[in-house]
Amino acid sequence: MMNLCYDIVNSIEVNNEDQRTSDPAVCVIEAGTGTGKTLGYSIPLIPLAKAKKKTLILSTATVALQEQVMFKDLPDIRTNAGLDFTFAMVKGRGRYFCKLRAERESDKRMSLFGYEDQSIKILKDKFADGLWDGDRDTYSVEVRDEIWQKVNAVVGQCPSHLCPHYAICPFFKARKELDSVDVVIANHDIVLADLSLGGGVVLPDPKQSIFVFDEGHHLTSKAINHFASSCSIDATVKWVDEIFDMIIPLVDNYNNEMEQLATELHSKTTKLKKELVETKDFLLRTLPFKSEYDKRETCIFPSGETPKEVINYAKIVGKILGDMNKINGKMSLIIDGNLKSNPDAGEHKMIVGELDNRFETLITAWSDFVNVKHRDKNGIPFARWVDVNREKKNEIVINSSPVHAGDMLMKDVWNVVFSAIVTSATIRTLGKFDAYLNQVGLPPATPTLLAQSPFNYEENGVLFIPNMKFSPKDVEGIHRRSVLCCLS
């Protein structure tokens, strides 16, 4: 395993820091439990990445596995393998505290109720006093989701260097650290999000990075979930009612043009709400929903093709959302023109950023949903369906999702990164790598390796099947037997 990892990466010849003479190199390795996967890729790749002046990015399936690599595996390797290297763990922006959002939330609550939320005040005070670094995972107690969602960093609301607290921002301090370490510990969700944005947004430049996807059997499902989209019509209607209150501070701080744009945006919200209500009514009346589980029913469109009648409604919604986003863009330009003269410009950029983020998400959801073909513009097959939740006043949710991740992974990952190693204990199907290579979009000639487990299960394992008095289908009999065993 060590030799293959080393050979694949070392085979790439580089003329300069921005151009390589060969295609991106990828290999796939199945290594059973106990074969030492982390050692197998870390020991050869850490010094090799340093020699090639690349960043080694270790991507796991979950945050828990990230922490295992960060706090156990890599410290052990650095201590016992004689390797000198630095490493850091990257997390999503939402795991970090945003002082600007916290202050805004406190001011909003003070103006509405006349007092500050004590839970938010405690977070603010601990951060201000240096008793907490702003990382949710390092806080002394668990922060409730309903509180954290009001104070965490959000990409669409971040004014970046315009923020008055930029110098002490926990996220940007953590992001800056990544540029100076040899090894970055990430997870698949963060890697896919970063690469889909072109790379180098949260993580180091992918062209200057060697990636290892541990627990690689999760990669396809993670990719499909990442590119799937959905939209609750009911939740959107509720959010639309909040837009005018959000933009009031912009009207009070800028010229007449801003006021005109705000008025136009408010007019569009009224029209959007009307169209959303009519679309929901049409879907409830015409779609043949079938019961799936609990109170949720689903209508799946054959071959992923949205009916023309539904498209007619959905296109109107998408058009209004696009117009609203254009108006918001014009409002953002006015704020940009007053950055030096308006001390609150950073907070105002957060407002239009929040709107832009939500508009883009909604536009993507409706655009994917109304595509008349079962494949997108890149030829990727899509599934489309509508859910209705009877327990939530017939809440309607539109959905679309790619059914194959291969083309997307090839475009956004394999064609972008310097090189990559994919490994897991469960990759092969029927003893072959072919199915997995197809799922992740890699050619059949991709180098593969089966690293056998050192445990001799055939000779040391025992399969014991006890005599059963009752058939597994006899639930009552098994239950009675269990009760008697417990009583005895």
Mean pLDDT: 86
Say how many strands there are: 14
Shape: globular
**Largest sheet, described in full?**
7 strands, parallel
Oligomer: single chain
The unreliable regions are 14-21
The number of helical runs is 18
Overall radius of gyration: 27 Å
Instruction: Walk across the major sheet and give the strand order.
Output: 5-6-4-7-13-3-14
Instruction: Tell me the strand percentage band.
Output: 5-15%
Which structural category do the helix and sheet elements fall into? Answer: alpha/beta
C-alpha end-to-end distance: 52 Å
Helicity level, as a percent range? Answer: 40-55%
Descriptive keywords:
five-stranded antiparallel beta sheet; 18 helices; 488 residues; globular; alpha/beta; seven-stranded parallel beta sheet
Can you walk through the features of this model?
The protein is an alpha/beta fold and 488 residues long. Helix content is 49%, strand content 14%. The protein has 18 helices and 14 strands. The protein has a seven-stranded parallel β-sheet. Strands 8-12-11-10-9 form a five-stranded antiparallel β-sheet. A two-stranded antiparallel sheet has the order 1-2. A hairpin with a 5-residue loop joins strand 11 and strand 12 (395-402). The longest helix is centred in the middle third of the chain and has 31 residues, at 256-286. The radius of gyration is 27 Å and the shape is globular. Residues 14-21 have low confidence and may be disordered.
